[in-house]
Amino acid sequence: MNKIILLQDKGSVYMDYSFDEVIDRKDSLGLKWNNLDQQFGCEEVLPMWVADMDFSSPQPILDSLKGVLDTRILGYATPPDTLYNAIIHWQKEHHQMELTKDAILFAPGVVPSIAVIIQALTNEQDAIMIHDPVYTPFSTMIELNKRRCIRSTLLMENNQFKMDFEDIEKKLVEEQVKLFVLCNPQNPGGRVWSKQELLTLAELCKKYHVLIISDEIHADLIFSPYQFTSLVTLDPSYQDFVLTLSAATKTFNIAGVKLAMIFAHNPKLYKQIHLYQEAIEHSCLNTFGYVATETAFTQCGPWLEQLMARLEENLTMVCHFFDTRLPQVNYMKPQGTYLFWFDCSSLGLTDEELMNHFIHVGKIALNAGVAYGPGGSQYMRLNFAAPKVLIEEGLKRIKFAFEQ
Ligand SMILES: Cc1ncc(COP(=O)(O)O)c(C=O)c1O
């Protein structure tokens, strides 16, 4: 149970949160823990895959959602000014982003926002560039919307991803790329792109008139000493061609409420996206999303601080385990996110065999690296946002899989 120890600091509710409680998610609709047999062909797997956390969402959010139920009428909702102010304040305080209400659009998710922007601002067969590997729905949205997906493979230096600017520039020109979809911090590798890397990428896109979507959904999940930089804040001119995607859902473990924001500083782009959203009736969204997002940004700062301390501990535990028990396995120590990307090539299996091996031998559900693009081949992604007993069990299962 969450125990209240202190109340009210500038609107934030201080509580001593428990990140040890194992909450039975089998009775919820949670994608991560349910229908494992159908999803993985094995009911007994320990699910450490999709990116939500096995920690309780913050108590102030749960309370505010109960408050919605107490109104007893769940009619249509409209986003209040207090929500806009909460977003503007959070972005300014945490990411030095200057925002006004007329630059904020709501959407039922970050992935739906990518789809809407693709549809509103590009045409069929246009080229859209992404990194490889990167969060799977980037390519899915591009391809399902009949645009051409151009991948620039990330390079590896000291077990961290880095961008290949030569390759990016060559392809921007050759393929006449219209849009770049950036993931910062990077999923699956957990890279927090440096200012210099972001500047170089943005300058290339500016030079060749390429719009950028900067998916910053993991922006609040950063490990010390790394510093997240929101791309659009680097130079005032970037406001013309950068669209930032943000949400409280990943940070505060409320992915199911489905609310995200598009920050469009350029009024012309704002209008185009807004018109498109109206055409597909994306303007009236979920009451719970509005309420949870406002509560997250106004009352849950202390929860986030405690969460980050716990994620740091979990990460130390995972790295120590790999260093001491599986020293032959290379991994990428994430600078942000709660995702751990490790190399399974020492098993000598194909990508398909690898996934099956972890499921049927290790009895653990991870994300297959190859799903993030060809550059993810031979890797697996572990989600370490869970109580320590589950992490310990997961690591045992991974070790067992490596030993067989
Ligand atoms: C980089 C990235 N973008 C977007 C999402 C999902 O966003 P949404 O649920 O708002 O569509 C995720 C979820 O893991 C993600 O990692």
From TrEMBL:
Its cofactor is pyridoxal 5'-phosphate. GO terms for molecular function: cysteine-S-conjugate beta-lyase activity; pyridoxal phosphate binding. Keywords: Lyase, Pyridoxal phosphate. The keyword Lyase applies. The keyword Transferase does not apply. Residues 81-398 form the Aminotransferase class I/classII large domain. CDD domains: AAT_like. SUPFAM superfamilies: PLP-dependent transferases. Its EC number is 4.4.1.13. Belongs to the class-II pyridoxal-phosphate-dependent aminotransferase family. MalY/PatB cystathionine beta-lyase subfamily. This is cysteine-S-conjugate beta-lyase. It comes from Carnobacterium iners. The lineage of its organism: Bacteria, Bacillati, Bacillota, Bacilli, Lactobacillales.
